[in-house]
Each structure stands twice: as C-alpha cells, then as structure tokens.
Amino acid sequence: MTQPLTLEELKQVMAEADLLKSEADVEDALNRLASDITDRLADSMPVVYSIMNGGLVMAGRLLTKLNFPLEQGYMHATRYRGETTGSTDLQWQAPPSVPMEGRTVLILDDIFDEGNTLAEVVKSCEAQGAKEVLTAVLVNKIHDRKNTELKIDFIGLEVEDRYVFGCGMDYRGYWRNAAGIYAVKGL
Ligand SMILES: O=P(O)(O)OC[C@H]1O[C@H](OP(=O)(O)OP(=O)(O)O)[C@H](O)[C@@H]1O
Ligand code: HPA
C-alpha cells in the first residue's frame, strides 16, 4: 500500500490539477443521460444499481432526474482499491442489494476505463438471471487499452487518457467530492 497523503499534499493535488470538465459540463451530461435513459427504460420497471464507491455521486445526481418507476440498489466491486492502477482481480465487497432475476437492470458507474470492472459486473448480473443488463457511465476514458468488447449503452462524457478525479472518482481515496472532473498533474 502506498503511503497516505497529508492534508497539504491533497490540497496541492487539487491546486495543480487540470480541470477537464466543469460542474456545468457534468450537469449537462447528466441531463442528456437522464433523457436517453428515460427514452429507453421508462416502461421497464428496472432495478438501477450503483457500483460503489465510484458510482455513488453519479447515481445520486442522476436518479432524481429519472421520472419513472424504478428500484434502486447497489453493489460494491473494486479493482483499484485506492491505487492509480487496477489490480487483475475484481474484489466483491458487497453483492447486489436487490434481487435481479427476470428484471431489466441498469448499472451506473463513474468511469469506463480499461473496462474490466463493468465487463465482470455485467457477466455477474447475467449469471444471476437478469432479463437484460444495460450500463451507463459518467465518463468514458479514451484509449486503446480496453480489455473488453463490452459496449456501454449510455455515456455522459469522454475524457483523455489521464488519471482523473471528482464526481465520484478518487485520487488515492480522496477528492471524490470534487464537483468537476480533474486530471492529476503528471498522470
Ligand atoms: O474500467 P476499469 O479499468 O475496470 O475501472 C473502472 C472502475 O474503477 C473504479 O473503481 P475502483 O476499483 O477504484 O473501486 P472504488 O469505486 O471503490 O474506488 C471505478 O469506480 C470503476 O468501477
Ligand atoms: O482515472 C481514474 N480515476 C479514478 N478512478 C479510476 N478508476 C479507473 N480509472 C480511474
């Protein structure tokens, strides 16, 4: 495990970061996502799961924009665990909180990076008998290292190939609470 960061270091990370998407950009993206998701799922009484922890902020901000009957749930699967590179094994820290057999499932997550997390989560939902599984992410990171053929159904924003934080995404456990999306200096 890397050494914990101090308060001063964490403030410096933010002070030196590049703002990639403003709070207003994020809000526009969430409104577009809500409209597209409503068009597709308004009549399907879906279960909408957030992938903890990263999906928490997106879910909280998106759910109140969805004006149709849905159930809300969560699951916690983690691959990075406070580091800036992902481990090969996805660790399940909490299984899905609502049964999904025969249901339309929508998975919400903050970022589609190499794609291992969502690919495995989707596979797991299918194995648990979901009728259909759709995915929505706030951010798709653009690079050619995706480890999956999975196509994300709803994408809010695209970002360049840098380590990003804010809107649910952490830098070594911190700054998920930042309202915009930032790239760490040098990463
Ligand atoms: O596309 P991938 O390369 O698999 O990365 C994306 C995943 O990584 C992050 O989760 P993380 O493992 O950091 O867990 P956390 O949300 O609990 O921080 C993020 O929230 C996504 O779930
Ligand atoms: O760029 C990232 N930032 C935060 N969390 C992440 N998980 C995968 N990629 C990222």
Automatic annotation (TrEMBL):
Domain Phosphoribosyltransferase stretches: 24-171
The enzyme's E.C. designation: 2.4.2.8
Name of the protein in its database record: Hypoxanthine-guanine phosphoribosyltransferase
Keyword Membrane part of the UniProt annotation: no
Enzyme class: transferase
Superkingdom, taxonomy of origin: Bacteria
UniProt keyword annotation of Transferase present: yes
A single MF term (Gene Ontology): glycosyltransferase activity
NCBIfam families registered for this protein in UniProt: PRK09162.1 (NF006605)
Pfam families assigned to the protein according to its UniProt record, in alphabetical order: Pribosyltran
Key words, A-Z: Glycosyltransferase, Transferase
Signal peptide residue numbers: none
Catalysed reactions, semicolon-separated: GMP + diphosphate = guanine + 5-phospho-alpha-D-ribose 1-diphosphate; IMP + diphosphate = hypoxanthine + 5-phospho-alpha-D-ribose 1-diphosphate
